[in-house]
Write a structure and sequence with these properties.
- The chain has 572 residues and is of the alpha+beta class.
- The chain is built from 17 helices and twelve strands.
- Helix 4 runs parallel beside helix 7.
- The longest helix has 24 residues.
- The radius of gyration is 24 Å and the shape is globular.
- The two termini are 46 Å apart.
C-alpha cells in the first residue's frame, strides 16, 4: 500500500480501526495496549493453547507500524486517510482510490492523548518481547519514553491538531488519563521512581484520583490506570505514595462494583438477557474491555498479598469467584448464550452475523476476482447485497445488540454489525483466562473466608438523597459536596410534582476543573447542566469551581429525588 507518499514517510502496516480503510492512531494504540496486557497476564494460558506466538505477532504488527509513525522524538503520525473521504467510498483495501494523506502531531500541533496512548502501547509491548526479542523490546521502550516526554511537555488534545479525527474518534475525556496511563505502564516496565512519582503526584490534577466511572475504552482510560495503580499498591510497590495509590484503588473498586451490580446508583444497566449496556452504537466494546479489567482485578484480589480477597461494595462484598462468574456470563452472552441465540463473534457458533459492515469482507476477494471495484460500484453492487459477505471475518466481534437484546444482521446497520479491533483485543486475555480455568470458576471459593457484606447506606430524608456511598478505605469526606433540597411542590392531574434544587460545592483548597456529574432515576426535565459524553457537566460559562464556590441546578419530576454523584473531576 502506498501510504502517505506526500509526507515522505513509510507508514505501511498497522490496523484499520473497523470496517473502513482508515488508520486511526488512538484506537489502534489502545488495541495494541490491550493485546499486550492480555499476553502479560495470561500468556501462559495462550502458550498452553498454542496461540502465544500468534498473539505476539498481532502485537508486533502494530508496534512495527508505531516505530515508523514516530520518526522523531517529538513527531508522531496519528492518522492515514480521513473518515469523510473514506465513508463516501466502498472499496476493498487493494483497490483504494481514497486519500492516503498522513496527519501528525508535533510541538506546534500537540496531541498528548494520542502520544500518551502510543507510549503506553509500546511500553506494554516491550514487556511482551523482553525475553524473546530483547533488542526489539529495548527499541520499543526508548520510543515509549520519548513519546511520554513529548506528550507531557507539549500538552493538548490530538483532535484539535488532527481535526479530521474529531467526528470519528474525538478525545472526549481529554489527555489526562492517557498521560497517567503511559506513566503507569512505564513504571510497570522500568520500576523507575520518576514514573511512580508522576502517577501519584498528578492524580488530582489529571483526574486519576477524581474520576469514578464505569466505562473503559479507547477514549477513557481512567479505570485501566486505576487498576494498574491498585496492582502496584497490592504488590507493595507504592513506597511513600501508598495513600495516593489507595485513592486510585478506591476508584478501581468503584468500577468493579458498578459492573457486577453491587455499586448502587452507579451500576451499569443490563439488558433483559443480562448484557452490560452503555449505548446502542457498538456497545460490545465496553463489555469486552470491562470483562478484561474485571478478570485481572479478580485475580489481583486473590493472589496479591495486600488484596484481602473480596471487594467491598455498597451492596455487599464481590468475591473473586463471583466477579469471574459474571465475566463468564458476559463472554457467554457474546458467544451465543443470549435471547437470540446469536454469537456476536463472527465465525463462531451456528448463528453469527453474516452481513458484517466491513469493506474488505463484503466484496469478493481479489484472489477470486481481481477486477477493479470502484467506489461507486462497491456501493451499488456490493454494499446492498442481501446475501452474506463472501469473506468471513473469523474472530471479529461486532457492535452487538441494543438495550432489548435485539439485533438486525444488515450491512447498513453499522451501529450493530460493524466490527472493531478494540472490541476483540480485550477478549484475547479474557478467553485465555477462562479457557485456562477449564470451567473451574469456583477455584477461589473454598479458600475465601466469609466476608461480611458492607452495610447498606444509611437512609436519609428523600430531599437530601445522593448516591455517595462509603467504600472500603474511603473516608466520608469528599472534596466535592452534593446537597439536594425540595424547593417547591404542586399537584397536577392527581400527581404531586417536586422541584429539586441541587447544590454542588467545592470543599477543597484547590480549583475543580472538568467536573462531570452522574444523574440516574431522572424522570423529568433538568436545568443548569449540559449533557456530555460522560454524564453531565457545568455550563460553558462556568469552566471551573474555585475553593468554596458552588453551582446549582434544578430538575422537576413527580417522584423521589434522582441519584446524583460525581463521575470525575480534576483538582488544580
Amino acid at each position: 500500500m502506498n501510504n502517505s507518499a506526500a509526507a515522505m514517510v513509510d507508514l505501511v502496516g498497522g490496523y484499520y480501526d473497523a470496517g473502513d480503510n482508515v488508520k486511526f492512531g488512538l484506537p489502534m494504540a489502545f488495541t495494541v495496549t490491550m493485546m499486550s496486557w492480555g499476553i502479560l497476564e495470561y500468556g501462559k494460558q495462550m502458550a498452553a493453547a498454542g496461540e502465544l506466538q500468534n498473539a505476539m505477532d498481532a502485537v508486533k504488527w502494530g508496534t512495527d507500524y508505531f516505530i515508523k509513525a514516530h520518526p522523531e522524538p517529538d513527531v508522531l503520525y496519528g492518522e492515514v486517510g480521513d473518515g469523510d473521504t473514506d465513508h463516501s467510498c466502498w472499496q476493498r483495501p487493494e483497490d483504494m482510490t481514497t486519500s492516503r494523506q498522513a496527519f501528525r502531531v508535533d510541538p506546534q500541533n500537540p496531541g498528548s492523548d494520542l502520544a500518551g496512548e502510543t507510549a503506553a502501547a509500546m511500553a506494554a509491548a516491550s514487556l511482551v518481547f523482553r525475553h524473546k526479542y530483547p533488542g526489539y523490546a529495548n527499541l520499543l521502550l526508548e520510543h515509549s519514553k520519548q513519546l511520554f516526554a513529548f506528550a507531557d511537555k507539549y500538552r493538548g488534545k490530538y483532535d484539535a491538531s488532527i481535526t479530521v479525527a474529531r467526528n470519528y474518534y474525538g478525545s472526549f475525556s481529554g489527555y489526562g488519563d492517557e498521560l497517567l496511563w503511559a506513566a503507569a505502564w512505564l513504571y510497570e516496565v522500568t520500576e523507575d521512581r520518576y514514573y511512580l512519582d508522576y502517577l501519584a503526584n498528578n492524580g488530582d490534577a489529571l483526574g486519576g484520583t477524581g474520576w469514578s466511572i464505569n466505562q473503559f475504552g479507547w477514549d477513557v482510560k481512567y479505570p485501566g490506570v486505576q487498576v494498574l495503580a491498585a496492582k502496584f499498591l497490592l504488590q507493595g510497590r507504592a513506597g511513600e505514595h501508598a495513600a495516593a495509590l489507595q485513592r486510585y484503588r478506591q476508584n478501581a473498586e468503584f468500577f468493579v462494583c458498578s459492573c457486577v451490580g453491587k455499586g448502587g446508583a452507579s451500576n451499569v444497566p443490563r439488558t433483559p438477557g443480562g448484557m452490560m449496556y452503555h449505548q446502542r452504537w457498538n456497545n460490545l466494546q465496553f463489555v469486552t474491555s470491562a470483562s478484561f479489567l474485571l478478570t485481572v482485578y479478580a485475580d489481583y484480589a486473590t493472589v496479591l498479598p495486600g488484596a484481602g480477597g473480596a471487594v467491598r461494595c455498597p451492596a455487599g462484598a464481590a468475591r473473586p469467584y463471583e466477579i469471574l462468574a459474571f465475566v463468564r456470563s458476559q463472554v457467554n452472552y457474546i458467544l451465543g448464550d443470549n435471547p437470540r441465540a446469536t454469537s456476536y463473534m463472527v465465525g463462531y457458533g451456528g448463528s453469527f452475523p453474516r452481513q458484517v459492515h466491513h469493506r474488505g469482507a463484503s466484496i469478493v476477494s481479489v484472489r477470486t476476482d481481481p477486477s477493479f471495484v470502484s467506489c461507486q460500484e462497491g456501493y451499488s453492487s456490493w454494499y446492498p447485497r442481501p446475501a452474506g459477505n463472501p469473506n468471513v471475518l473469523e474472530g471479529a466481534v461486532v457492535g452487538g445488540p441494543d438495550e432489548n437484546d435485539d439485533f438486525a444482521d444488515e450491512r447498513n446497520n453499522y451501529e450493530q454489525t460493524e466490527a472493531a479491533t478494540y472490541n476483540s483485543a480485550p477478549l484475547l486475555g479474557v478467553l485465555a483466562r477462562l479457557a485456562g480455568a477449564c470451567g473451574g470458576l469456583e477455584e477461589y471459593q473454598p479458600s475465601l473466608p466469609e466476608a461480611a457484606a458492607a452495610p447498606p447506606p444509611s437512609s436519609s430524608h428523600a430531599a437530601n438523597r445522593t448516591s455517595h456511598h462509603r467504600r472500603r478505605g474511603q473516608h466520608a469526606w469528599s472534596p466535592i459536596g452534593i446537597e439536594q433540597n425540595v424547593t417547591r411542590t404542586w399537584a397536577m392531574r392527581r400527581r404531586t410534582y417536586y422541584r429539586y434544587s441541587v447544590t454542588v460545592t467545592n470543599r477543597s483548597r484547590k480549583t475543580v476543573r472538568e467536573l462531570h456529574l452522574g444523574v440516574s432515576e431522572l424522570q423529568g426535565r433538568l436545568w443548569g447542566l449540559d449533557k456530555a459524553r460522560y454524564g453531565y457537566v457545568p455550563p460553558k460559562w462556568l469552566p471551573a469551581l474555585r475553593p468554596g464556590r458552588s453551582l446549582r441546578f434544578v430538575y422537576v419530576q413527580p417522584a423521589p429525588p434522582a441519584n446524583v454523584w460525581v463521575t470525575g473531576y480534576k483538582l488544580v
